[in-house]
Amino acid sequence: MTAVLTEAERASAAASQQRRRRRSFGALAVLPLLAFTAIAFGVPALAMFNGAFTVKDEATGVTSYTMANLTGSLHGAYLTALVGSVKLSVISAAIGTVFGLLLAQAVVTSRFRAVREAVLTASGVLANFGGVPLAFAFVATLGNSGVVTQHLGLEDKGWNLYSFWGLVIVYLYFLIPLMVLTITPALEGLRVQWREAAQNNGATAFQYWRHVALPVLLPSLLGGFVLLFGSAFAAYATAAAMVGSAVPLVTLQIADALGGNVLVGQEHVALALSLDMVIVAGLVMAVYLPLQRRSTRWLA
Fold first, then answer.
1. What are the DSSP E strand ranges found in the chain?
2. How confident is the model at residue 90 (pLDDT cuts 50, 70, 90)?
3. What is the residue-averaged pLDDT of the chain?
4. For residue 106, which of 116, 98, 118 has the smallest C-alpha distance?
5. Which residues contact 151 (CB under 8 A, 6 or more apart)?
6. Closest CA to 217 of 102, 109, 121
7. What is d(CA 253, CA 273) in angstroms, rounded to the nearest whole number?
């Protein structure tokens, strides 16, 4: 009996040692990724934090730490740009969430597999289509001399692409497909038994969505909204190419401050604005991660 137990203990010890060896090899394999992350993200983050709280005296060349940059980033035109970016992101994300949910529901309930695959494939492409090419496409289509604008006479009716609402429409071009990709798995996770149980108890389709489907989908919807908000909040190239300084946005203010296009010597204020964006993004992620875990638990 003792020999048998000894052999079992030896086998258990060998298995434990093998598992530890595999974990050590796994840790070594992750080291290059950790090193790359530390260099690509850690070094710029440290430079941003350091620059946001430092100021250099041009006369003496002495560098000192201060809160003046952060305070200045929350006043005047900088505050207007920050509020404008938040407003644009909230409105774009809200509209994108609603229309993305409706389109995803139509795709999930479609009887045609080809339609589903086409929409999801197109959403994967359009969700990553942005920057200068997207701005050019909309300018050529809905700009002052755009094909659709001239054909329908939209300019005479007060249409202006280079405005806040014009930018919202452009952002929806990639936000709605992103919402479709985000919410489709959640819609597929709604069990058929829930709908059948609601129908057996006399519930209408509206009551099913109000009391069953939407409460279950709410974490995923809020998580999708937060994801869309972050995408719109961080967008730069599209707005820069299309509206320039016509719409105050924090990303454009950072570029102007770093480039000295408006005022010279505002580089540290630009870093403080970047820190403001990081704080907003951190708050967004603090909301998104718990919602994502909750939706996963419901729809697993």
1. 54-56, 63-65
2. very high
3. 82
4. 116
5. none
6. 102
7. 8
Average pLDDT over residues 226-242: 88
Stated pTM of the model: 0.79
pLDDT tens digits along 155-197: 888 888 888 999 999 999 999 999 999 888 888 888 888 888 8
CA distances for 209 relative to 103, 187, 296, angstroms: 16, 12, 19
- 100/180 Cα distance (integer angstroms): 5
Do residues 135 and 144 make contact, with C-beta atoms less than 8 angstroms apart? no
Say how many C-beta atoms besides its own lie within 10 A of residue 167's C-beta. Answer: 26
From CA 225, how far away is CA 93, in angstroms rounded? 6
User: Which tokens is 238 given?
Assistant: 């599209």
Give the separation between CA 88 and CA 191, rounded to whole angstroms.
35
**40 residue type, one letter:** A
Nearest C-alpha neighbor of 249 from the set 75, 79, 81, 90: 81
Report pLDDT for 30: 75
Write down the pLDDT at residue 26: 63
- The phi-psi region of residue 202 (left if phi > 0; otherwise alpha if psi is between -120 and 50; otherwise beta) is left
Residue 234 CA to residue 255 CA, distance in Å, equals 13
Residue 81: C-alpha distances to residues 85, 164, 245, 247, 251 (Å): 6, 12, 10, 8, 8
DSSP string, 147-171: HHHHHHTTGGGT--SSSHHHHHHHH
Which two three-digit tokens encode residue 247?
């719409």
Which residues, other chains included, contact 52 with Cβ-Cβ below 8 Å and sequence gap of 6+? 69, 70, 268, 271, 272, 274, 275
pLDDT, one tens digit per residue, over 54-85 is: 887 666 767 778 888 888 888 888 889 989 99
Place of tokens 């430092």: 54
220: closest CA among 101, 99, 86? Answer: 101
Tell which residue, 59, 55, 57, 79, has the closest CA to residue 69: 55
